[in-house]
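hey can u check if this looks right to u? its 207 residues, i copy pasted from the old doc so theres a chance i mangled smth
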Amino acid sequence: MPVPVRRLAVIAIAGALPLVAALAGLLLLRDADATPNYRGSRPPSGVKAADFRLRSYTGREVRMSSLRDKVVVLTFLDAQCKESCPVIAATAPRALAGLDAKERGRVAFLAISTDPREDTPAAVRSFLRRYHAEGALDYLIRPASAVRRTWREYGVIASENTGSDTMHSAPVRVYAPGGEWVSSLGAGSDLSPRNLVHDIRVASDAN
């Protein structure tokens, strides 16, 4: 007895399902391999770090363009802040300690002031010492006009503008070598020394 055309079609589709599933699985694996598994939130692809030339509280000049061969961990802090800033400052040295000597040479931890009027060298030094971050986190405070320009270029709400030490943007952004923004971690959510070390390593290996 001839098999109905509709039944043949159903048999053909059913027979093809394992092959379709296998191909879909391969495509998913391929996509997973192609997309680095960051623990922080993923920003829009292709966003590069804006260049700047600022001075640290120590007087050292720092240029973003001179760090293109490194993973850059960048955040925005207020030395008078009592909420997210202490958490971020304390995380930096613990993350640095979780890297080996070779990895430490390929990463830069930077903070840009959100209130350059109050973030004097003495205030910043005291803040960093309080959270054992001196020597781990380079805190950039001058010139004030250039600091304020970074707020616009990086889309940051500054405490100088809000009038409150605790009301400001405090993202911890990870930039891969070459300057692409690849991950963002937040105090009180996904920021931890372990997660930061993980994302630094992924960013380093992705280039």
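Residues 3-34 have pLDDT under 50 and may be disordered.
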